[in-house]
Amino acid sequence: MNIEQLDFYTQAILSMAALVGLTSFLMLGQGRLLRLIFVFAMQGFLLTLTTGLAAYSLNNHHLYISAVLTLVLKVVFIPWMLRREVLRMNMHRDIEALKNNTAVMLGGASLMVFSYYVLHPIVQSSSVVMLNALAVSLSVMLLGMLLMISHRQAIAHVVGFMSIENGLFFAAIVATNGMPMVVELGVAFDVLVAAVLFGIFFLHIRTSIDSLDVDLLNKLHEVDK
Amino acid sequence: MNWLIAVLQITLFVLLAPLLAGWVKWCKCYLQNRKAPSLFQPYRDLIKLTHKQPVVAEQASWLFILAPYIIFSATVLAATVVPLIAVDLPTSASADVIVMVGFFAFARFFLALAGLDVGTAFGGMGSSREMTISSLAEPAMLMAIFTLTMTASTTNLSFAITHVLNEGLVLRPSFVFALAALILVAVAETGRIPVDNPATHLELTMIHEAMILEYSGRHLALIEWASQLKLMLYGVLIANIFFPWGIAETFSIQALGYGLLAIIGKLALLAIFLAIAETLVAKMRLFRVQEYLSFAYLLGLLGLLSHIILEASR
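Above: the input entities. Below: the structure tokens describing the complete assembly.
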């Protein structure tokens, strides 16, 4: 099945999948926190576009609500909150020295191949588009985990966690043609609660170790002083 | 008849190149709140330079004098490969896109030699930087172009553009990546702002200008013209590969005129984007350029991979 024979909606979904995968790679290699947050907001925007597209072409009206929720939460609110935190901690001028960046990028590429390999049996029972979109969203999830492992700042961990959720959300939209409204509202609310909880965690980590670098959490206060 | 149109197209290419450079400059001036020079200022500059007597250093060898002619003719030959207003011309059928990249490399080789020839510090520095950048930019460009050629299963630009035209509007993930990669490479190769600054002579960061610092008179005119031609070539590549609509497929007067109007409109639009980007973005440090170009390479590679993974038949 060549791409020329697919309909316009499927082509657009495939393009979106490719771009979402690209933003995940961009986040993985990003040393500056503000830029990391910006790329995260871009990924949220791509998700909004995908949702809007699905809503339009499937004629599924409640997906519009979900698109607006995505826009408000993932493009505006969470990036704004993280950005405020970075500016308040005065971390926007530091470049996080990523340990062995090349190895991490190669690991990311192999994770992408791995997710294709894992999902390949599914192609027998479903369409090619589904395989591609699912593989991209699985690799977005795995890349989010890799982001959490490879970065040291707590804010980067939060971005990684949120991008795992983005991957799940993408898979849900593409594979199910829109979940029931209750589920979507629940997920959006969960993300909101997670964001607030992370804010509280930031506060606690900062007051106890005066930094958001999680490597410092290994050290004992009494021994160091 | 076909050859006549081919010759006409090349003439148009060569004659319109300074106009495009003037238009980019005009847009930039307008965006930066300066008073813009006339659109035809590049022509006046070229004419002025040809009237002046060229001054050649005593130590310069024959290579230094010959290089401008070689560079200009190699760039014109590269321009013959690219369809401007019509596809399926005999000149573009005779050579493919890899030959075009080869012509660019040939011109660049002589430019770098000419920079080294006189033995000034600036010339050598400029040549070394140019070669460093081009060695990184060329693979990225080839990756972007291979994405197109794999889709059309031909390396001939004319046939590839016809293929894209006949297919109609198909959204391809791989083309999105290839377009981004080609734009990044075009900016680096034509020496525009994040990589090199075409408007200054007085900084230690200059690349292209450092190599041609010793040239004057008609030699300088030829090199300037060649670099304007190169800018236009990349513009036409981007416009005609990814947005080929409007290009003439038959050789009637009407179709050709329509093709000419279409390409002028596309180039004018592209130049506006270039001017906006140059106004918004600051010049990079030289040592950041390799990151920029490896990002372009990554995009090209992703384009190729997404062609294989997302689009190919199974």
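Note for the figure: Chain B touches chain A at residues 167, 169-174, 176-177, 298-299, 302, 306, 309-314 (CB under 8 Å).
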